[in-house]
Amino acid sequence: MNNLLIWPVAVPLLSAVLTLLWPRRSTWIGVLGTTLSLLAVVLVSRQVVESGAIELALGGWSPGLGIALRADGLSVLMLLMSTLVSMAVAVYASVYISRSERRSEFWVLWLLLITALHALFLSGDLFNLYVTLELLGLSAVVLACLGGSRESLQAALNYLMLGLLGSMAFLIGVALIYAGYGTLDMAALAAAIESGPTAWVALSLMTGGLLIKSALFPLHFWLPPAHSNAPAPVSAVLSALVVKAALYLILRLWLALFDEVVTQTAALILGLLGGIAVLWGSWAALQAERLKLMAAYSTVAQVGYLFLFLPLLAALPEGTTRDVALGALVLLALTHGFAKSAFFLAAGVIMQRAGHDRIAELGGTARALPVTAFTLALAGVALIGLPPSGSFLAKWQLLSSVFITGQWIWLPVIAVGTLLAGAYTFRLLGYAFAPGEGVGPSLSVGREEIPAVLLALAATLVLGFWASAVWELVPISAYAGGEG
Amino acid sequence: MNALILMLSPLIPLLLACFAYRLQSRWWLFAAALPALYLGLMGEQGSAITLPWLMLGMHFSLDSTAQQFLLFGAMIWMLASLYIPGRDLLPGASGYRKQSFLLAMTGNLLLIIAADMLTFYVGFALMGLSAYGLIWGPSQRARKAARVYLVFTLIGELALFSALLLLLVNSQSLLFAELHTESLPQAAVALLLLGFGIKVALPGLHLWLPGAYTLAPIFGVALLSGPMMKAGLLGWLRFLPLGEPLDPLWGNLLLLLGVAGVVLGMLVGMFQRDPRSVLAYSSISKMGLFSALIGFTLNHPGMVAGLLPVIVLLALHHLMVKPMLFMGLDLWQKGAAAHWLLPALTLLSLSLMAFPMTGGGAVKNLMSVALNDNLAWLLFLGGMAATLLMGRFLWLLWNSKQSAEYDRLTLSAWLVVLPLAVWAPFAWDGMSVKGSALLPLLSAAVLLLIGQLLRRRFDLLQQPMFTQGNPMSWRIPTLAGERVKAESGWQRVKRLRQRHLQGLVRWPVMGLRDTAVWWLMLMLLLALALRN
Amino acid sequence: MAMSVWLPVAILLSSFIPGVLIFFQPEERRRLRTWLNLLGALIKLLLVGMLIWGVFHEQVFESRWTMAPGLEFVLHADALSVLFVSLSTLLWLVTTIYAIGYLEQTPHRSRFFGFFSLCVTATVGLALAGNLFTFVVFYELLTLATYPLIAHKGSPEALRGARIYLRYTLFGGLLLMIGAVWLHTLTGGVEFVEGGILQYANLDQSTLRWIFLLLIVGLGVKAALVPLHGWLPQAMVAPAPVSALLHAVAVVKAGAFGIVRVIYDVYGVEFAAELGVLTLLGAVAAITIIYGSLKALSQDHLKKRLAYSTVSQVSYIVLGTAIVGPLATIGGLVHLVHQGVMKITLFFAAGNYAEALGIHRVSEMDGVGRRMPGTTLAFTIGALGMIGIPPVAGFISKWYLGLGAVEAGAAAWVLPVLIASSLLNAAYFLPILYRAWFKSQSAPWPADKTAGCVRELPDALLWPPLTTAAMALLIGLFAAAPYSPLEWAELIAGREYRQ
Questions:
Q1: Which chain A residue has the Cα nearest residue C207?
Q2: Range of the domain at C417
Q3: Of C145, C141, C126, which is closest to residue C85 (Cα–Cα)?
Q4: Does residue C245 belong to any structural domain of this protein?
């Protein structure tokens, strides 16, 4: 039954091939492929919940030589998020992209992106990780420039170059590890890695590469243009999933593989950068004149929150309290994934309807597009971290960790960040709910509005009330000596 | 049955007040006081009822004080109801007289039968605030008078409220019967003196009174000067630890303030031109006497048993006489049968002066006995003040102008109540007919003479200081600056005689209404006579 | 057994589900929307009736749901929550009827009623919250549900008012949350227990003081304690039913209720007094009472005057809480109900004046009593109650507050505050009554919409204020009757001071 693990990767890959073969049916195949991979992920998750972490060595070679796939709590959660989000985005895209002549290209790249994501979350060795990271980056870049405008091309080019730079750094790190320890299997490495020059350098390189990809302040500058100029469904996945993939890797590295190496100071540095990202990103979002730009800056801020956890996690003793904090981190990432994708999808609807996304001219949105306005509101709630969203719980635990560790310095950061998030969200809502003619009237709920609202509901209600599953899954770890 | 009526006596006016906008006959207002009257006449003393679910639990009971207050209060309420002008009863009338009247009556009756502090307070507040509507009038001055009254009333109520809280925590029970009088907080006593002192118009706290008494409609003044003012006195009787040792400071303070009130009322009252103002200051003076007596009683716990009933009696007497004087004045000014009015008003005045053969005189006798020869100077002073003021009043009355638009019903009713007002105290046991007003009377006459001489001699009172405020004027009010010649006494008598004849001619056409009043009042008189 | 679990949830859902359904109704389906609203309100009333009966007989109602490790979503009905739940349920019903009448022929009614129901859901949730975490959840939800209601008109002033409201409440919510997390971290879970839990926890006292400060400032924003009250007068741009609900039940009361919860059921009042934090709170409450009244004096805008009056009146609750002793507790708690009933009456009436005659200012009210006697009667009862004239409900509150102060030996500063406040209340309410009843109309009504009508207003607008006014009168008049708010407050106080 361990073969199950192959499906979340194989299904989207096969569908991508099929799309190439039948470009005319690309929409159908794309949506179907996404649906089937959702099914596969659900099956995998069930098994992980029932019997703990599972592992599959492709081609029958033992880990260390061949391609190893592993699923534990963390990867299952990320998988679930990415597949659910991509499912919703696919439905949305089937309407949104249908008018574009680059439809088939979109779907091929889309399916490749999902493949890469799933493979990344399931990879059990470092080289595979590099490959999937590269694949992910490339497909994301191409998707990002599907918008076709000059700005989007420019932004995509920046994105590409920086992404390559990050990947290269990562690759050198991997090479150093291989040279030092003779294996790339993560389970083996988790036990083997000890503090030493090789480990320091490798970790720094790999983390540095990933920091670019996760757009942590001050490496965030590529993100807002790239995310805000891409077509809406692409922005949604970029912000919600691709950034999270890099973060997932950082977590894996810092908590499982290099847990012996990580020092409090290093974590503190990342935390500080995260803190600045929170403040700067929120502030920039408040200043943004365009809806999608605002959302993009908000992503910068949210990524900052995730990094705030690192110094706390480093300071907490292993055990329940640390698991709780880790769960909160994951929950925050998940909530942000759902909320931000919903936000971008809604922004896309508005853009299509109004022809622009200038915030100050959005009056009348609530009347013309009530469901979309509602989506924005719900997503905004999750971004601020108000109940009943998952991010509220996550923030609660974050604060709790702050009090437990006594790292008071984060308290004002979280507080100000929350207030700023409230400010930019409600600034937007204020315009959207004001009377005006900025957006043309709509007669019915469009098909593209539904996925967005479902995503937003997932972020605010489902993750709020059923979040305890996250904390049940996170301790299921495939890596001994890791976070479990 | 008695308990039920006890409950009904405030309830009926309250219910009527709720539907007052539909009541267009003053008989409704008249009838509202009937249960109270019944209680006053035939109620069984000691009957009580407790309504634990009402507010914080309300307790009504009928003791002898309550019964007497009810009886006389009810009569004044009934009489005053007839003085409400017809236009105030019409739908859409301004000023909400009916509502105010009925609510004030509710409050008044409630506080009389209250057996606990809260009930008393509720009644007191209801009465005090509703009386705003009795004072208010469309004119600028009346509005101001009403406003001043309201401010004072509110302050008084809040003082009382605070006092109540202190008392309650001190004695852990709301009931008067369980009022813990030892170790009474000093603040509570001070607040009680303040709270009720406003209603009783102690000097300094009296500033609301002259305006209200001169500008309110006559039935309002009658009620204010009678049942309402005495409610403050009743409050002291109920709340103060009479008969218990207390810091003599308070008794002395009250005594002092009371004496000040007597003197102040007398002095200022003498300078008034308006007979109503004179009556108003006479009220201040009279209430000063009461206050002083209560102050004395506070300091002499041993004499409470003897003094208290007499103070009540004196208060009741004043409760009747003062409204009667106001209403009589109104009748006179409206040109009602002067041939009866003048002697009647004189009679009332004499009773207030404690002239022999009047109720006032009888009560005063009783009082000197009860005082055991203490405070004779106070009684003397009070008597003199009353004499001077009543003399001034009658003088002004004699010289005041009359119009000719009165409601004959009001006259009939007034005349019926008159004997009750003057002689009611005789219904109590142990009354002697003897009066003791002679000494104050004589001294008052001497004083008047001296005053007159002084005026002639120095023309003192023509100084701007006096002329601008309330100048004492022995002259007939001038019209448009021109001094008119006074009507000679003889001419006046002739004119009055003329009108007397006219009145007699009109008599046979007396309506059913008047007959009913007479009949009712007669029965009342009989009942009162038969009561003992 | 089962009932004890589902009843609190059902009470929440009885307004949540109609609210959600209403969102999806097209604007023109007025009848269906009305039915949904009223059905929800009536079902809730029924359920709350069951709850009252159960709690009175010491049944335990509790639903638990683990949301995160150590974070449980707990709905628990104790006597205090029942007090607040029944108030909100009853007033919700009345306000819904009023709102249906008030918003006739205006746009966005589905949206309005949807958020309206959510607002009540959040309020009831607050009342039923069994621990601090759940309380914070609903506290924030309340902010969210009321924001669209304040902004409902969409005019620049409405948006501005809503923005200011949000600024304050998000800030307050954040502080509350920080305080709650801190406390939670120290104790491992903060359940509301009658009598408090912290006195046994053996924690550092100065930390507890800081936490108290955070919690109270967070709650004080909604309770409009000076100087955190700035949003309240601005929020009066909302439609009248919203203002009514906001001032009487939902937002302001939520803050006050939270303060009560924190002091009685988290810290324990004696322990809080031991920490010395209550003196400060009492001083703030006293300042708020006086300051609110003083500000109200100078307002010509009727709703603003009422808003400042709320600032002052709600602090009575806080004051009652800050004085140690069962009597003051009773006074504070019962004022929670009394103020709600009276203030909602006043706002209904203010809404009626605006609706029928376009009157927004006190100076325009000359002679309005003759034109709109029913409304003005209701207003009068409410205003007299606010001043504390017996037998209207406000008197009972003041009585117990004063009594509590005397009992606790705090008479020297509480009684003057009460008296000054009563005088000030009289000074800003009585002139309104005077204008309405005694003056005659001096200028044409600003916008006479009911000219030529036989009745002063449609039933849906006239009866709600009359009903609540009657309630204000009756709960004062029958304060000692069984199941009255006072009785219930005594029950709570009895349980709080059981040890």
A1: A403
A2: 299-499
A3: C126
A4: no
How many residues appear in chain B? 532
Confidence label for A430 from pLDDT (cuts 50, 70 and 90): confident
Are the beta carbons of C391 and B150 separated by less than 8 Å? no
What is the distance in angstroms between the Cα of C476 and the nearest Cα belonging to chain B?
6
Q: Establish, for the pair of chains B and C, how many residue pairs have beta carbons separated by less than 8 Å.
A: 72
* Predicted complex ipTM: 0.91
* Alpha-carbon gap, residue A298 to A275, rounded angstroms: 13
Domain count, chain C: 1
Residue C367 touches chain B, beta carbons under 8 Å: no
Question: How far is it, in rounded angstroms, from Cα B12 to Cα B34?
Answer: 9
B480 within some domain: no
Q: What is the DSSP letter of B177?
A: T
| B479 domain-assigned | no
Strand extents, DSSP E, B27-101: 48-51, 58-61
Q: Which residue of A has its CA nearest to C142?
A: A387
Q: Look at residue B475 and tell me whether its pLDDT is greater than 60.
A: no
C424 interfaces chain B, CB cutoff of 8 Å: no
User: What angle do helix axes C79-102 and C251-260 make, rounded to 10 degrees?
Assistant: 180
- Asked if C17 has any chain A CB less than 8 Å from its own CB, the reply is no
Residue A319 Rama label (left phi>0; alpha psi -120 to 50; beta): left
Closest-CA residue of B relative to C419 is: B158
Question: B166-175, B430-439, B492-501, C432-441: which has the minimum mean pLDDT?
Answer: B430-439
Cβ distance C405 to B165 less than 8 Å, yes or no, reads yes
**Chain-chain contact of B154 with C482 (C-beta, under 8 angstroms):** no
Domain count, chain B: 2
Residues B356 and B208 in one domain: no
**Region B354-375 average pLDDT:** 82
Does C touch A (3+ CB pairs < 8 Å)?
yes
pTM of the model: 0.88
Looking at B207, B241, B275, the residue that finishes a domain is B241
Q: Are residues B411 and B492 in the same domain?
A: yes
Name the packing angle between helices B229-239 and B117-135 (round to 10°): 170
Please say whether the beta carbons of A325 and A309 come within 8 A: yes
Residue bearing tokens 């709102």: C99
Question: A367: closest CA among A292, A456, A439?
Answer: A439
Per the structure, the complete domain to which residue B312 belongs is given by: 244-471+486-532
Whether chains B and C touch (3+ CB pairs under 8 A) is answered by yes
Place of tokens 């979002």: A285
DSSP A388: T
Higher pLDDT, B403 or B311: B311
Least confident segment among A426-440, B234-248, C294-308: A426-440
Is residue C332 within 8 A of residue C286, CB to CB? The reply is no
Residue spans of alpha helices (H) in A72-102: 73-96
